[in-house]
Design goal:
The structure is a homodimer. In chain A, 36% of the residues lie in helices and 20% in strands. By secondary structure, chain A is an alpha/beta fold. In chain A, strands 1-2-6-3-7-18 form a six-stranded mixed β-sheet, covered by helices on one side. In chain A, strands 9, 11, 13, 14, 15 and 17 form a six-stranded mixed β-sheet that branches. In chain A, a hairpin with a 2-residue loop joins strand 4 (102-104) and strand 5. The first copy, chain A, starts with a helix and ends with a helix. Chains A and B meet through strand 9, strand 10, helix 6, helix 9 and strand 11 of A and strand 9, strand 10, helix 6, helix 9 and strand 11 of B.
Chain lengths: 465, 465
Amino acid sequence: MKSVNEYIDQNRDYYINWLKEICEIPSVAAQNRGMTDSVDYLKGLFEEAFQQTPEVLKTSGYPVVFSHLKGTGENTLSFYNHYDVQPEDPIELWNTPPFEPTIIDGQMYARGIADNKGNLIARLAAVHAIKNVIGELPIDIKFIFEGEEEIGSVSLPEFADEYKDKIRADGCVWEFGYRDGDHRLQLSLGVKGMLYVELFSKGANTDLHSAQASIVESPVWRLVWALNHLKDENEKILIPGFYDDIDPLTKEDEEMIKHYRLSENFLLEHLNVTNFVNNLEDEELKIKHIFEPTCNICGIQSGYTGEGSKTVLPSEAFAKLDFRLVSGQDPDKILLDLRKHLDDNGFSDIGIRSLTKEKAARTSPTERITKAAINTIKSSTNEMPNVVPSTPGTGPMFELCQKHGIPAVSFGVGHFASNNHAPNENIFIEDFIEGIKMMASFIFEFKNEMEQQGAGIRDEVKSQK
Amino acid sequence: MKSVNEYIDQNRDYYINWLKEICEIPSVAAQNRGMTDSVDYLKGLFEEAFQQTPEVLKTSGYPVVFSHLKGTGENTLSFYNHYDVQPEDPIELWNTPPFEPTIIDGQMYARGIADNKGNLIARLAAVHAIKNVIGELPIDIKFIFEGEEEIGSVSLPEFADEYKDKIRADGCVWEFGYRDGDHRLQLSLGVKGMLYVELFSKGANTDLHSAQASIVESPVWRLVWALNHLKDENEKILIPGFYDDIDPLTKEDEEMIKHYRLSENFLLEHLNVTNFVNNLEDEELKIKHIFEPTCNICGIQSGYTGEGSKTVLPSEAFAKLDFRLVSGQDPDKILLDLRKHLDDNGFSDIGIRSLTKEKAARTSPTERITKAAINTIKSSTNEMPNVVPSTPGTGPMFELCQKHGIPAVSFGVGHFASNNHAPNENIFIEDFIEGIKMMASFIFEFKNEMEQQGAGIRDEVKSQK
């Protein structure tokens, strides 16, 4: 690997320039900005790096940029990334323009640089470096770059079903990856699922003088009461059966949670809060974070929200909620249960609009790809990664990987304060360079692990066909 | 009165123009817009109408415009109105610009036209017409125009104490007045009180990716739970002792409530709702509307409220609430009880900001001014007014009148669908013109009633001094 690492060092400015160029494109999927430019840029980048034009696969939304690079070995590794980014609002809180990547004290700031263009480029660069130093790739590499991750990967399930042969792989490196506050690398083995809904309530046909509140029903009170039936003050979610289908923790999970490190004091101080929910700590806190579902209010609005007092009985109210789901939970079932629960409690007047449904996904710590990742990180960073059994975040890992028998792991170039989805998103340049080297090493490590297993495309996948 | 009425008809466009001009001023006290312009406009209007500059009496907030016009009789009638208006939000629901008064099919639309610039101008116009036709006023007239009614008349109690001699009168015509759906005029003999508070909750020092909702406390959930401790699903307010101090209904009240007419079906149809709260109707509904306090959510906000889904754990949340209080209830005591109630239920983290505190006020149906109003309305409209023992709305009637022994009645130029505090606020032009005539008649009727009583400034007031 020495020569590959040397090559990466010699070409660091070249790769940093790729990163800079892609971060200049405002590829905000939610607002249909810069999406075609991103696809064109990626096409050009593949042609420059690999003298091969990638496929631009149509979906019902933004296309997937797909490339299959042949290698000498039997195995296939895929990289799942996304070229879309979150909106840059609130723009006034950025210290530098979000689409003019700027390096300050070793950190590059730009919208999408951590989530997830830094990882996308680092992975391309790793494959490019191997190819240029060795002349050929040790295994087959597939790049799957979608354009709708930040809007819930709406077209990806259909895509993954349509192209299930194309996306087949022995393992997948998932899009994200972070370092903890002490610079230790996280290795994540799963994602939570999600049900995102909007609850809404309507009253009279117009806002009224609040004197009328004596006799006219209030939709915002109705919404508040309905919400109160969803989660109690001890964080227990009250939808009957909500917890029933959750996969119980295995011995493996319990072992992992012991070793998983959550820097509690660091986090409390960083967020300026005095305690976590229900005053949890240690083991219980970690289990809640990793293995339990949530019911979170992302937003709520009704009536007058300006300065001072306005005495009005609002005519409508809404709340946006995300339920983060864990292994075993089915968002479709929970949506039905939510409807029934509201009805059963006298809230059939509360409307539900479903926006996102994703299942959780998990990869076993005993998978070859997990071992390859741990070995790579250990030898690159001289310490064990902080293995996260499942990130508390969400992504389409179930649809793209688990459903097709492909184990997936996640590690990358971000850090605990990368400000994903927030102003001043950033990564450290040195993390980016080290991330390229690490991913190049991983490709060889993965090949070795898989060859010990002696399997090509996973048998399970073959037998499923 | 024939000649006064003729004069009003001849000058209708002149008075409509006054109305148009004053409604062009965006006098939103909550946002400190157009307040000085309003005072200047009123000064000019008094000078034009009565060749007399009104006093601009400083308060700790916006000034009170005060004018005392001498008459030939012994008695004094005051008019309480306000030159401030509610904010115009939500602006997108207005069919015409809120500060560009527009006449469509006999109705003029503008923010504040019903509440309460239509009445303010109608009363000025009535006095102007009498003076121009008769040459002198039959009694003393005092105009008291405040600028903070829509923000809870915060400076008025202090003002009323400081200027108690100046505001002394034998009776007061209160700011508002409406017609029912069948065009019958309401005569209101009181107002509810109010406690307006903002409840707020803070969490981490920044909005977070909602994956963190598994372990970081949510201020918006805290707020929702706290609200749930304030009122149950059957509209019962849960603050201990809340109902204890309410004055019981007198025989007079029970008699009045029998005759008071609430057009239930009309209202249901007009608001496009199927039922009133708790499916109440008839006597129970009227009592709830007139004699019971409320706890209403005027507004609530937290987190992401735009299109589609954003997965965020908001760092703060707030709600604006108004409690409409009835005779006997003390807003100061209720504020303390509210704080204690939240604390007792584990919600000491919820902050309370108090914005308005007002006591309820009532005028007896046997007062001379009540009789004068009934007589005037009967002879002007050929039917009995719909006497409302106390309007479900609020105003500083306690501080300005009841506390100083001045009985107050309310009738005016609005109608049941005037959309006070809401988009497309409006009055009928013909109601405005008729309202001017009725107020001119009332001034004479009031003089007659008082002279039968044989008293000048009320004896009770004198003995209080």
